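Page 42, continued from yesterday. The earlier attempt failed because a stray header line got pasted into the input along with the sequence. Redoing it now with the clean sequence only.
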Amino acid sequence: MEGLEKAIEQIKENIPKLDLRENEPMRNHCSFKVGGAVRAFAVPGDLFEMSKVMFYLHMNGVSPLTLGKCTNVIFPEEGLDIMVISTENLRKLRLGETENTIYAEAGVSLAKLAQFARDNGLSGLEFASGIPGSVGGGVLMNAGAYGGEMKDVVESVVVYYVPTQALTEVKGSDCGFEYRRSAFEKINCAIMGAVFKLTPDDPEAIGARMKEMNAKRTASQPLDMPSAGSAFKRPVGGYAAALIDRCGLKGYTVGGAQISQKHAGFAVNTGSATYDDVVELLDHVRREVYAQTQITLEPEIRIYPKGMMLVDDWRERKQTIIDGMLEQAKQNAADSAAESRDVRPS
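This time it went through. C-alpha coordinates are written below.
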Protein backbone atom coordinates (compact mmCIF):
# COMPACT_ATOMS: atom_id res chain seq x y z
CA MET A 1 0.00 0.00 0.00
CA GLU A 2 1.56 3.27 -1.18
CA GLY A 3 0.47 5.32 1.82
CA LEU A 4 1.93 2.81 4.26
CA GLU A 5 5.27 2.67 2.44
CA LYS A 6 5.49 6.46 2.46
CA ALA A 7 4.61 6.58 6.15
CA ILE A 8 7.27 3.98 6.97
CA GLU A 9 9.93 6.03 5.19
CA GLN A 10 8.89 9.22 7.02
CA ILE A 11 8.85 7.41 10.36
CA LYS A 12 12.33 5.98 9.77
CA GLU A 13 13.62 9.42 8.81
CA ASN A 14 11.99 11.42 11.60
CA ILE A 15 11.96 8.91 14.47
CA PRO A 16 15.31 7.16 13.94
CA LYS A 17 15.47 5.62 17.44
CA LEU A 18 12.07 3.96 17.16
CA ASP A 19 12.04 0.18 17.47
CA LEU A 20 10.60 -0.49 14.02
CA ARG A 21 10.61 -4.03 12.66
CA GLU A 22 9.71 -4.66 9.04
CA ASN A 23 8.00 -7.86 7.90
CA GLU A 24 7.61 -9.05 11.48
CA PRO A 25 6.02 -12.51 12.05
CA MET A 26 3.03 -12.14 14.37
CA ARG A 27 3.35 -15.73 15.61
CA ASN A 28 6.27 -14.39 17.65
CA HIS A 29 3.90 -12.10 19.54
CA CYS A 30 0.47 -13.75 19.65
CA SER A 31 -0.33 -16.08 22.54
CA PHE A 32 -1.85 -18.63 20.10
CA LYS A 33 1.53 -18.84 18.29
CA VAL A 34 -0.11 -18.44 14.88
CA GLY A 35 0.26 -15.78 12.19
CA GLY A 36 2.37 -14.52 9.31
CA ALA A 37 4.25 -11.25 8.94
CA VAL A 38 2.86 -7.74 9.07
CA ARG A 39 4.54 -5.08 6.92
CA ALA A 40 5.75 -3.15 9.96
CA PHE A 41 5.72 -3.59 13.73
CA ALA A 42 6.47 -0.49 15.80
CA VAL A 43 7.26 -0.48 19.51
CA PRO A 44 7.23 3.15 20.73
CA GLY A 45 9.22 3.87 23.86
CA ASP A 46 6.73 6.34 25.33
CA LEU A 47 3.49 8.19 24.67
CA PHE A 48 5.23 10.99 22.78
CA GLU A 49 6.95 8.59 20.39
CA MET A 50 3.69 6.71 19.87
CA SER A 51 1.90 9.98 19.07
CA LYS A 52 4.54 10.79 16.45
CA VAL A 53 4.14 7.38 14.78
CA MET A 54 0.38 7.83 14.62
CA PHE A 55 0.80 11.33 13.18
CA TYR A 56 2.81 10.12 10.17
CA LEU A 57 0.40 7.25 9.57
CA HIS A 58 -2.59 9.58 9.75
CA MET A 59 -1.05 12.09 7.32
CA ASN A 60 -0.57 9.29 4.80
CA GLY A 61 -4.09 7.91 5.13
CA VAL A 62 -3.13 4.80 7.12
CA SER A 63 -4.71 3.45 10.29
CA PRO A 64 -2.53 1.30 12.52
CA LEU A 65 -3.60 -1.76 14.47
CA THR A 66 -2.74 -1.03 18.09
CA LEU A 67 -2.12 -4.10 20.23
CA GLY A 68 -0.87 -4.91 23.70
CA LYS A 69 0.07 -8.45 24.70
CA CYS A 70 -1.71 -10.02 21.68
CA THR A 71 -3.53 -12.54 23.87
CA ASN A 72 -6.82 -12.76 21.95
CA VAL A 73 -5.90 -12.17 18.31
CA ILE A 74 -5.23 -14.39 15.27
CA PHE A 75 -3.41 -13.30 12.09
CA PRO A 76 -3.48 -15.08 8.70
CA GLU A 77 -0.40 -17.05 7.68
CA GLU A 78 -0.13 -15.02 4.46
CA GLY A 79 0.56 -11.90 6.51
CA LEU A 80 -1.00 -8.47 6.24
CA ASP A 81 0.08 -5.22 4.60
CA ILE A 82 -0.49 -3.17 7.76
CA MET A 83 1.42 -1.56 10.60
CA VAL A 84 0.99 -2.87 14.10
CA ILE A 85 1.81 -0.55 16.98
CA SER A 86 2.68 -2.40 20.17
CA THR A 87 2.08 -0.71 23.52
CA GLU A 88 4.41 -3.12 25.34
CA ASN A 89 6.81 -0.31 26.36
CA LEU A 90 4.06 1.93 27.78
CA ARG A 91 4.51 0.65 31.33
CA LYS A 92 4.23 3.62 33.68
CA LEU A 93 2.31 2.67 36.81
CA ARG A 94 1.70 4.92 39.81
CA LEU A 95 -0.83 6.01 42.38
CA GLY A 96 -3.29 8.50 40.96
CA GLU A 97 -3.62 12.17 41.76
CA THR A 98 -6.86 11.64 43.69
CA GLU A 99 -7.46 9.37 46.67
CA ASN A 100 -7.71 5.61 46.08
CA THR A 101 -6.85 5.78 42.39
CA ILE A 102 -4.15 4.25 40.20
CA TYR A 103 -2.89 5.44 36.82
CA ALA A 104 -1.54 2.80 34.44
CA GLU A 105 -0.34 3.14 30.86
CA ALA A 106 -1.74 0.87 28.17
CA GLY A 107 1.14 -1.61 28.17
CA VAL A 108 0.99 -2.47 31.87
CA SER A 109 -0.07 -6.10 32.31
CA LEU A 110 -3.33 -6.62 34.16
CA ALA A 111 -1.55 -9.00 36.52
CA LYS A 112 1.01 -6.34 37.47
CA LEU A 113 -1.75 -3.75 37.85
CA ALA A 114 -3.65 -6.03 40.25
CA GLN A 115 -0.49 -6.73 42.24
CA PHE A 116 0.30 -3.01 42.48
CA ALA A 117 -3.22 -2.36 43.76
CA ARG A 118 -2.86 -5.12 46.35
CA ASP A 119 0.50 -3.81 47.56
CA ASN A 120 -1.08 -0.38 48.06
CA GLY A 121 -4.11 -1.72 49.90
CA LEU A 122 -6.58 -1.04 47.10
CA SER A 123 -9.30 -3.54 46.24
CA GLY A 124 -11.34 -3.99 43.08
CA LEU A 125 -8.85 -5.46 40.60
CA GLU A 126 -8.56 -8.94 42.07
CA PHE A 127 -10.53 -10.37 39.13
CA ALA A 128 -7.88 -9.07 36.71
CA SER A 129 -4.90 -10.72 38.40
CA GLY A 130 -5.05 -13.79 36.17
CA ILE A 131 -6.17 -12.21 32.92
CA PRO A 132 -3.18 -12.43 30.53
CA GLY A 133 -3.77 -9.13 28.73
CA SER A 134 -2.71 -5.51 29.25
CA VAL A 135 -4.51 -2.36 30.38
CA GLY A 136 -5.18 -1.11 26.84
CA GLY A 137 -6.71 -4.33 25.59
CA GLY A 138 -8.53 -4.88 28.87
CA VAL A 139 -10.23 -1.50 28.65
CA LEU A 140 -10.96 -1.86 24.92
CA MET A 141 -12.89 -5.11 25.39
CA ASN A 142 -14.08 -4.49 28.95
CA ALA A 143 -12.23 -7.59 30.14
CA GLY A 144 -13.60 -9.44 33.10
CA ALA A 145 -13.61 -12.61 35.17
CA TYR A 146 -15.20 -14.00 38.33
CA GLY A 147 -17.92 -11.38 38.42
CA GLY A 148 -15.68 -8.35 37.92
CA GLU A 149 -15.23 -6.18 34.82
CA MET A 150 -13.10 -3.20 33.86
CA LYS A 151 -16.18 -1.00 33.75
CA ASP A 152 -16.53 -1.47 37.52
CA VAL A 153 -13.20 0.19 38.26
CA VAL A 154 -12.33 2.50 35.34
CA GLU A 155 -12.68 6.15 36.35
CA SER A 156 -11.31 7.57 33.10
CA VAL A 157 -9.40 6.58 29.99
CA VAL A 158 -6.67 8.56 28.20
CA VAL A 159 -6.86 8.14 24.42
CA TYR A 160 -5.02 9.54 21.44
CA TYR A 161 -7.87 10.80 19.28
CA VAL A 162 -6.59 10.51 15.72
CA PRO A 163 -8.87 13.08 13.96
CA THR A 164 -7.61 15.91 16.19
CA GLN A 165 -4.14 14.43 16.84
CA ALA A 166 -4.56 15.10 20.56
CA LEU A 167 -4.69 13.29 23.89
CA THR A 168 -8.18 13.24 25.38
CA GLU A 169 -9.44 11.99 28.74
CA VAL A 170 -12.79 10.17 28.62
CA LYS A 171 -14.86 9.61 31.76
CA GLY A 172 -15.62 6.01 32.59
CA SER A 173 -19.33 6.69 32.30
CA ASP A 174 -18.79 7.83 28.68
CA CYS A 175 -16.82 4.76 27.57
CA GLY A 176 -19.88 2.83 26.41
CA PHE A 177 -18.92 -0.29 28.34
CA GLU A 178 -20.98 -3.39 27.62
CA TYR A 179 -20.22 -7.09 27.98
CA ARG A 180 -16.78 -7.49 26.32
CA ARG A 181 -17.23 -4.23 24.42
CA SER A 182 -16.55 -0.52 24.67
CA ALA A 183 -17.18 2.55 22.54
CA PHE A 184 -13.46 2.69 21.70
CA GLU A 185 -13.91 -0.16 19.22
CA LYS A 186 -15.83 2.22 16.95
CA ILE A 187 -13.74 5.36 17.48
CA ASN A 188 -10.57 6.29 15.57
CA CYS A 189 -8.32 6.39 18.63
CA ALA A 190 -5.68 4.51 20.58
CA ILE A 191 -5.93 3.85 24.31
CA MET A 192 -2.87 5.26 26.05
CA GLY A 193 -3.72 4.65 29.69
CA ALA A 194 -6.44 4.61 32.32
CA VAL A 195 -7.25 5.77 35.84
CA PHE A 196 -8.79 3.18 38.16
CA LYS A 197 -10.97 4.07 41.17
CA LEU A 198 -10.60 1.45 43.88
CA THR A 199 -11.57 0.73 47.50
CA PRO A 200 -9.22 0.63 50.51
CA ASP A 201 -8.76 -2.84 52.03
CA ASP A 202 -6.22 -4.98 53.83
CA PRO A 203 -3.45 -6.13 51.44
CA GLU A 204 -3.48 -9.63 52.93
CA ALA A 205 -7.22 -9.98 52.38
CA ILE A 206 -6.84 -8.73 48.79
CA GLY A 207 -3.98 -11.16 48.20
CA ALA A 208 -6.01 -14.06 49.57
CA ARG A 209 -8.84 -13.34 47.14
CA MET A 210 -6.39 -13.13 44.25
CA LYS A 211 -4.79 -16.42 45.26
CA GLU A 212 -8.18 -18.14 45.42
CA MET A 213 -9.23 -16.87 41.98
CA ASN A 214 -5.94 -17.84 40.38
CA ALA A 215 -6.05 -21.31 41.93
CA LYS A 216 -9.48 -21.82 40.33
CA ARG A 217 -8.12 -20.58 37.02
CA THR A 218 -5.12 -22.91 37.11
CA ALA A 219 -7.27 -25.91 38.03
CA SER A 220 -9.86 -25.36 35.30
CA GLN A 221 -8.10 -23.72 32.33
CA PRO A 222 -5.47 -25.06 29.86
CA LEU A 223 -2.79 -22.56 30.87
CA ASP A 224 -0.03 -24.96 29.78
CA MET A 225 -0.99 -24.70 26.08
CA PRO A 226 -0.96 -21.79 23.61
CA SER A 227 -4.41 -20.26 23.36
CA ALA A 228 -6.15 -16.94 22.89
CA GLY A 229 -8.21 -17.14 26.07
CA SER A 230 -11.95 -17.68 25.91
CA ALA A 231 -12.90 -18.57 22.35
CA PHE A 232 -16.48 -17.32 22.57
CA LYS A 233 -18.36 -14.64 24.45
CA ARG A 234 -20.92 -15.70 27.03
CA PRO A 235 -24.35 -15.99 25.37
CA VAL A 236 -27.46 -14.65 27.05
CA GLY A 237 -28.72 -17.04 29.68
CA GLY A 238 -25.83 -19.50 29.58
CA TYR A 239 -22.15 -20.23 29.21
CA ALA A 240 -20.32 -21.00 25.97
CA ALA A 241 -18.21 -23.75 27.53
CA ALA A 242 -21.27 -25.58 28.88
CA LEU A 243 -23.02 -25.41 25.49
CA ILE A 244 -19.93 -26.65 23.64
CA ASP A 245 -19.49 -29.51 26.11
CA ARG A 246 -23.18 -30.43 25.91
CA CYS A 247 -22.88 -30.64 22.12
CA GLY A 248 -20.06 -33.17 22.45
CA LEU A 249 -17.38 -30.86 21.08
CA LYS A 250 -14.83 -30.93 23.89
CA GLY A 251 -11.62 -32.23 22.30
CA TYR A 252 -12.87 -31.61 18.75
CA THR A 253 -9.82 -31.03 16.55
CA VAL A 254 -9.06 -29.45 13.19
CA GLY A 255 -5.40 -29.83 12.22
CA GLY A 256 -3.42 -28.44 15.13
CA ALA A 257 -6.32 -26.46 16.64
CA GLN A 258 -8.47 -28.09 19.29
CA ILE A 259 -11.32 -27.35 21.69
CA SER A 260 -9.54 -27.90 24.98
CA GLN A 261 -10.20 -31.21 26.70
CA LYS A 262 -9.75 -29.41 30.02
CA HIS A 263 -12.10 -26.46 29.40
CA ALA A 264 -14.50 -26.43 26.45
CA GLY A 265 -14.50 -22.62 26.37
CA PHE A 266 -10.90 -22.55 25.13
CA ALA A 267 -9.43 -23.24 21.72
CA VAL A 268 -5.80 -24.35 22.00
CA ASN A 269 -2.82 -24.89 19.71
CA THR A 270 -1.65 -28.48 20.10
CA GLY A 271 1.60 -27.57 18.37
CA SER A 272 1.02 -27.11 14.65
CA ALA A 273 -2.14 -25.03 14.35
CA THR A 274 -2.59 -22.67 11.43
CA TYR A 275 -4.92 -19.71 10.91
CA ASP A 276 -7.15 -21.84 8.68
CA ASP A 277 -7.31 -24.55 11.36
CA VAL A 278 -8.54 -22.04 13.94
CA VAL A 279 -11.10 -20.47 11.62
CA GLU A 280 -12.48 -23.87 10.58
CA LEU A 281 -12.58 -25.09 14.18
CA LEU A 282 -14.50 -22.10 15.51
CA ASP A 283 -16.84 -22.07 12.53
CA HIS A 284 -17.69 -25.75 13.04
CA VAL A 285 -18.34 -25.19 16.76
CA ARG A 286 -20.63 -22.25 16.07
CA ARG A 287 -22.62 -24.16 13.44
CA GLU A 288 -22.92 -27.30 15.56
CA VAL A 289 -23.96 -25.44 18.72
CA TYR A 290 -26.58 -23.53 16.77
CA ALA A 291 -27.89 -26.70 15.12
CA GLN A 292 -28.35 -28.37 18.50
CA THR A 293 -29.44 -25.43 20.67
CA GLN A 294 -30.48 -22.57 18.34
CA ILE A 295 -28.03 -20.37 20.23
CA THR A 296 -25.48 -18.37 18.23
CA LEU A 297 -22.02 -18.09 19.77
CA GLU A 298 -20.07 -14.92 19.10
CA PRO A 299 -16.26 -15.28 18.93
CA GLU A 300 -14.30 -13.47 21.62
CA ILE A 301 -11.06 -14.09 19.74
CA ARG A 302 -10.36 -11.33 17.21
CA ILE A 303 -9.69 -13.05 13.88
CA TYR A 304 -8.23 -10.64 11.33
CA PRO A 305 -9.31 -11.48 7.76
CA LYS A 306 -6.95 -12.32 4.94
CA GLY A 307 -6.07 -9.30 2.83
CA MET A 308 -7.21 -6.82 5.50
CA MET A 309 -6.08 -3.23 4.94
CA LEU A 310 -6.48 -0.36 7.38
CA VAL A 311 -7.22 3.00 5.77
CA ASP A 312 -7.63 6.37 7.46
CA ASP A 313 -9.89 8.23 5.03
CA TRP A 314 -9.88 11.45 7.04
CA ARG A 315 -9.38 13.66 3.98
CA GLU A 316 -12.51 12.27 2.32
CA ARG A 317 -14.50 12.42 5.54
CA LYS A 318 -13.29 15.96 6.24
CA GLN A 319 -14.31 17.08 2.77
CA THR A 320 -17.71 15.46 3.22
CA ILE A 321 -18.17 17.37 6.46
CA ILE A 322 -17.11 20.63 4.82
CA ASP A 323 -19.48 20.03 1.91
CA GLY A 324 -22.26 19.43 4.39
CA MET A 325 -21.46 22.61 6.27
CA LEU A 326 -21.41 24.65 3.04
CA GLU A 327 -24.71 23.15 1.94
CA GLN A 328 -26.25 23.95 5.31
CA ALA A 329 -24.91 27.52 5.14
CA LYS A 330 -26.47 27.99 1.68
CA GLN A 331 -29.77 26.65 2.98
CA ASN A 332 -29.66 28.92 6.01
CA ALA A 333 -28.96 31.92 3.76
CA ALA A 334 -31.87 30.98 1.47
CA ASP A 335 -34.20 30.57 4.45
CA SER A 336 -33.10 33.91 5.84
CA ALA A 337 -33.72 35.64 2.47
CA ALA A 338 -37.17 34.09 2.22
CA GLU A 339 -38.05 35.29 5.70
CA SER A 340 -36.91 38.81 4.81
CA ARG A 341 -39.17 38.86 1.72
CA ASP A 342 -42.11 37.78 3.84
CA VAL A 343 -41.67 40.67 6.29
CA ARG A 344 -44.04 43.57 5.47
CA PRO A 345 -44.09 47.02 7.10
CA SER A 346 -47.03 47.34 9.54
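Notes: Residues 318-322 have pLDDT under 50 and may be disordered.
Reminder to self: strip header lines before submitting.
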